[in-house]
Amino acid sequence: MFTLNPQSGIPIYRQLAEQVRRMVAGGQLREGDELPSVRELALEHAVNPMTISKAYSLLEAEGVLMRQRGKPMQIAPQKKQQHSQQARLLHLRPQLEQLVLSARQLEITDEQLVESLRQLLAP
Amino acid sequence: MFTLNPQSGIPIYRQLAEQVRRMVAGGQLREGDELPSVRELALEHAVNPMTISKAYSLLEAEGVLMRQRGKPMQIAPQKKQQHSQQARLLHLRPQLEQLVLSARQLEITDEQLVESLRQLLAP
Amino acid sequence: MFTLNPQSGIPIYRQLAEQVRRMVAGGQLREGDELPSVRELALEHAVNPMTISKAYSLLEAEGVLMRQRGKPMQIAPQKKQQHSQQARLLHLRPQLEQLVLSARQLEITDEQLVESLRQLLAP
Amino acid sequence: MFTLNPQSGIPIYRQLAEQVRRMVAGGQLREGDELPSVRELALEHAVNPMTISKAYSLLEAEGVLMRQRGKPMQIAPQKKQQHSQQARLLHLRPQLEQLVLSARQLEITDEQLVESLRQLLAP
DNA sequence: GTGGTCTAGACCACA
DNA sequence: GTGGTCTAGACCACA
Q1: Contact criterion met (CB < 8 Å) for B88 and A105
Q2: Cα separation values, D98 from C110, C111, D7, Å
Q3: What is chain D's Cα-based Rg?
Q4: Which domains occur in chain B, in start order?
Q5: Is the CB of B39 under 7 A from strand F?
Q6: What is the pTM assigned to this prediction?
Q7: What does pLDDT average to in each consecutive run of 10 residues of chain A (123 residues)?
Q8: In this structure, is the CB of residue C40 within 7 Å of any atom belonging to strand F?
Q9: CA nearest B78: which of B64, B99, B97?
Q10: What percent of chain C has pLDDT over 70?
Q11: Residue A26 and residue B90: Cα distance in Å, rounded?
Q12: Which helix (H) or strand (E) is B94 found in, with range?
């Protein structure tokens, strides 16, 4: 369900939080949907439970998640327009910009870049 | 010359190191080229000199940079094939994969993704 | 456990790193053994934690130490032949050569030199 | 005449100064003897003249060298007892102690250590 | 001018 | 508890 990479330099709790945000924005996670328990996720990704817990707390503070005593974390009701295509594309912007910067530093042409993306999507 | 983002979660010295690596792989920085001095970069990016220094040391340990006493850091001679297009595209892979993952979590279609990239590149 | 001398002109972090290397080569530190924490060593030698940390990072980059999040630094598995007597004597060579050079500049005879070493070792 | 090693971590000017001190203590350099010029030494060891100059100034401040306008640096008159065997052996002490420490960290036995020294002296 | 070392101290990520 | 990152600032070695 989630992809966590301890090598990337980005704190794990941030990676997790960002992925939840994206799946909410994308509509894959909707109001009322339940998330895996802290322990479950921790086990699955061989990570300390406190790390998962920190991500959940962060998302709760942001209003993305709701906590109910004794129940799994749930997706909170989202503000309107959250799921509009525009909103979702906006989410992707920083990564796209970062990608373009990288490509230019690598002297990869725009065509090559688009082509590489295409190939990765292909199969 | 470099783009450093203190918010990104990735340590600044790692961001800098990665960008130097890319510009070397891309051929924008070549053997013998001198990098800005530690102090210069530190001032420019409002960052502590030691942070820059740490990136330089890392790159020296990797063999990307050479140090000559009292002189600015220089690009070291690179191994062959370093600049081949394949090598450069390989550099971009992790970011591309990360982008695709994000897009899928956002339920952005492949066409929309390619289209977004196109628009960003456009003019 | 370690002897650090701030006056010697050799950077403290390098002194520490070299002593760890030696104790690994000598077999006093073995795969899996844990090193004192950064803070502990820093306190003990009245030195800044970052100085210790720098030595540890250097040794990790060399493959002498392993890092596990939240845990003390551990000795990494060493390449074979690392502990052979020959390997260990090789480690000592530069110091022996330096000693002989010094003795000759001091016009100390070879017999006197060996005798001095003997006396220091005696009891 | 001198052996300078830029890799050793010990500042070059300190290495040079220490070697002059030893040759004075050992009697190879005596009152009135002239040292090579700053330029000469700098050229010979591919080192910046200021580095040599710094060593000479240090030794002058210590009273080991004398400077006379327009003349090469000379060895200054030394205090008595400077050349006694005891004084010369005392000079060697720190290095001997350092060597023994290293040997013990390498788990090299006392016999092996003495034997290694012997072999190095042999030819 | 260049980079290197070290300190004192704050705050972070993770177990 | 562990190590990592970063800052502000002093001083050193060398060109």
Answers
A1: no
A2: 19, 20, 18
A3: 17
A4: 1-79 (1.10.10.10), 92-123 (no CATH)
A5: no
A6: 0.89
A7: 89 96 92 94 93 95 91 88 83 94 95 96 86
A8: yes
A9: B64
A10: 98
A11: 29
A12: helix B85-105
